[in-house]
Write a structure and sequence with these properties.
The structure is a single chain. With 666 residues, this protein is an alpha+beta fold. It folds into three domains: 247 residues; 161 residues, Galactose-binding domain-like (Jelly Rolls), CATH 2.60.120.260; 134 residues, Histidine kinase-like ATPase, C-terminal domain (Heat Shock Protein 90, 2-Layer Sandwich), CATH 3.30.565.10. 56% of the residues lie in helices and 17% in strands. It contains 16 helices and 20 strands. The N terminus is likely disordered. GO terms for molecular function: phosphorelay sensor kinase activity; protein dimerization activity. One of its GO terms (cellular component) is membrane. InterPro entries: 7TMR_DISM_rcpt_extracell_dom1, HATPase_C_sf, HATPase_dom, His_kinase_dom, Sensor_HK_TwoCompSys, Sig_transdc_His_kin_sub3_dim/P.
């Protein structure tokens, strides 16, 4: 049977996998929508003439042509107004590249013409021109209606600019001649990469606004993802995967905002002074750097599944791109970029294969990331093949990256869920162990207090037995010895020995009484909680001949502190140290209890000081015993040198009885 702990560990995983299935379906729907949205009606022309009467002009119509081609020339409408206009030398369908058409190569210039035959009546239309390589002008019946960059006959005279332009076009029921002048001396292939669309007003604008809104949302997701992961790394620097994924999201943000995938969203935000070439170069650099960073993310996340040698090859892509951009003409750099993009296809297969291995090994979150890798790989292959001109279609990089980022966020959420569950489990175990430890400590303190109480009772018993037993017997023996000495007064030698024996018995008796009083003063009131300081001070004065001064300021007439015995023993040890080690001639003992819940004991002598006394006898057991007694009653004990010389022992102990009496009096 599964335990509650097992159910707790597996239920979040089940919910996450359900969410993963939902995201897969949502991603598939997004891909399908993106693919279907890029399917306008195709308008087919004959001999460079396209009739619009058979088409619905309320939607979008792709002006595929074929357009007539005038290769190697940048012709304007005035050139076609000449009595002997240039003759076309071929036809080209849009979108497409012009290489091989009428002798054109990858680089060069050409002019294209298409005649539109509109239906009767006046209609205002919009022409959408997107990503024409790489500079162009468009005329309608001799009027310049659109331009991007400046077409030229060389790389120096051409001002390259890839952009999106919405050009107004008025149809009045008469034929309209479209003249498109295109030059390409920078990009690797010349031509028109995107279809030229004709639509009614509002359709193209709405599509552009919708694309920019979605692009802004996507860039916002990337920005939040980057900030979130980089913040996690700032808090946990020993865990590098969030760093690389945060950088990956940040670099993708720069790439997406400055590329055709978002219709050059950055161009609408940044100042117009920013050169388009610089913006596009930065976007391409960010894309290559993001690819390099992605491999490092996988390598640090699953180091035993990804090759470190392949990381070196992956990292080389960035310097290769930088060198190509800096040292070679731009059209060569674009070929290098294409080669780097094509390397992404086998690398995507490697990601999928290694993530599959991670799933089989049971790596946490590998199954979720594998789905994200498959989606991203599919989108990347689609976009690369479109960029290479191998297929036609719509770019899917945004939904692919969006899905991958979501699945990585889901993986991170699952890791955090498991981490939090583990923290809660460990916290629960720690709380249980702390409870056991507290109980053990309380039991140890209770046993220590019980041992001290038993020790004090034993001292009391031994002291009384010494006083009532041995001391009385020694006193009787001393008296009998005195009588014997009187009886032997006529015998000088025996009388002297008897008197010496009597003196020895008298000294022994005094020592026995002193020992009895040290263990427990027999004069002490048995009903009191412990022996009194007055008895201790009198004993020290009598036995050691040292001046001892006692000051007491007590809130209670008779001390009711349950820790009185422990304070007595601390004072006893402090006085003993002052007599034996500090060489004191005067000692001041004070006991202060103001009824505020604490009692303060101070023993101060005028001896040689604590450091000198410690050096004289190398430290002793007495100080440790005092500290132990203070710890048992939860008192604060301090031993320091007095300002004018000597040693000060201060002990502040709690006094619950005094505080209770004071509260009752109020």
């Amino acid at each position: 049977m599964r335990t509650a702990e097992d159910r707790h560990a597996t239920e979040p995983g089940g919910r996450i996998r359900f969410l993963m299935l939902f995201l897969v379906l949502a991603s598939a729907l997004a891909f399908w929508s993106a693919w279907r949205s890029a399917r306008p009606i195709r308008g087919t022309a004959e001999a460079g003439v396209l009739s619009l009467s058979a088409h619905d002009l309320d939607g979008e119509l792709s002006l595929e042509g074929p357009w007539t081609v005038f290769p190697g020339a940048l012709l304007s409408p005035t050139d076609f107004a000449d009595p002997k206009p240039p003759l076309p030398q071929g036809e080209l369908r849009f979108p497409g590249t012009w290489k091989g058409t009428a002798g054109l190569t990858d680089r060069g210039e050409a002019t294209f013409r298409l005649r539109l035959i509109p239906p009767p009546g006046e209609r205002r239309m919009i022409l959408r021109l997107m990503d024409i390589h790489i500079a162009y002008r468009l005329w309608a019946d001799g009027n310049l209606i659109a331009q991007s960059g400046v077409p030229g006959r060389s790389e120096t005279t051409e001002d390259a600019h890839r952009s999106l332009v919405l050009a107004p076009l008025v149809l009045r029921g008469e034929p309209v001649d479209l003249t498109l002048q295109v030059s390409n001396h920078h990009f690797r292939k010349g031509g028109v990469a995107e279809p030229i669309l004709l639509s009614s007003p509002g359709v193209a604008e709405a599509a552009r606004a919708r694309s920019w809104v979605l692009s802004a949302c996507f860039c916002g997701v990337l920005a939040v993802t980057a900030i979130y992961h980089l913040s996690i790394y700032a808090l946990r620097r020993h865990d590098p995967p969030p760093l690389y994924f945060g950088l990956y999201a940040l670099l993708l943000l720069v790439y997406a905002a400055g590329s055709n995938t978002t219709l050059w969203l950055a161009g609408e935000i940044l100042p117009r002074q920013v050169p388009p070439a610089a913006m596009e170069g930065t976007a391409l650099l960010s894309y290559v750097a993001a690819s390099v960073t992605l491999y490092r993310f996988f390598l640090t996340l699953y180091p035993d599944a990804f090759s470190r040698r392949l990381r070196v090859a992956s990292d080389l892509r960035l310097p290769v791109f930088v060198v190509a951009q800096a040292a070679f003409p731009s059209f060569v750099a674009y070929w290098v970029i294409l080669g780097l993009l094509l390397l992404t296809i086998p690398l995507s297969g490697y990601y999928i294969a290694r993530m599959t291995v991670c799933v089989r090994r049971g790596r946490p979150g590998a199954d979720i990331l594998l789905v994200g890798c498959v989606i991203l790989a599919g989108a990347a292959v689609n976009d690369i093949l479109i960029h290479a001109g191998a297929i036609e279609g719509s770019y899917l990089v945004m939904p692919g990256l969006f899905a991958f980022v979501l699945f990585q966020a889901l993986t991170l959420a699952m890791r955090f869920t498991r981490s939090f569950a583990e923290v809660e489990r460990l916290s629960s175990e720690l709380e249980g162990k702390n409870s056991v430890l507290r109980a053990e400590m309380e039991e140890r303190d209770r046993l220590e207090r019980e041992v001290i109480a038993i020790s004090e009772d034993e001292r009391r018993r031994i002291g009384h037995e010494l006083h009532d037993g041995l001391c009385q017997q020694l006193t009787a023996a001393r008296l009998r010895c005195s009588v014997l000495a009187e009886n032997l007064s006529g015998q000088t030698g025996f009388a002297r020995d008897a008197r010496a024996l009597g003196g020895l018995l008298a000294a022994t008796t005094e020592d026995a009484y002193a020992l009895s009083r040290g263990l427990w003063p027999v004069e002490h009131d048995p009903a009191a909680p412990g022996p009194s300081l007055e008895e201790l001070v009198r004993s020290v004065r009598r036995d050691d001949g040292v001046s001892v001064e006692l000051h007491q300021d007590r809130h209670c007439a008779k001390c009711a502190n349950p820790h009185a015995t422990a304070l007595y023993r601390i004072a006893q040890e402090a006085l003993s140290n002052a007599m034996k080690h500090a060489q004191a001639s005067h000692v001041r003992v004070s006991l202060t209890c103001a009824g505020d819940g604490r009692v303060e004991l101070i023993v101060q002598d005028d001896g040689i000081g604590r450091i000198a006394a410690d050096q004289g006898h190398g430290g002793g057991l007495g100080l440790r015993i005092m500290a132990h007694r203070a710890n048992v009653i939860e008192a604060d004990l301090s031993i320091a040198d007095a300002p004018g010389g000597g040693t000060v022992v201060r002990c502040i102990a709690p006094c619950s009885r005094g505080a209770a009496i004071r509260e009752t009096a109020r």
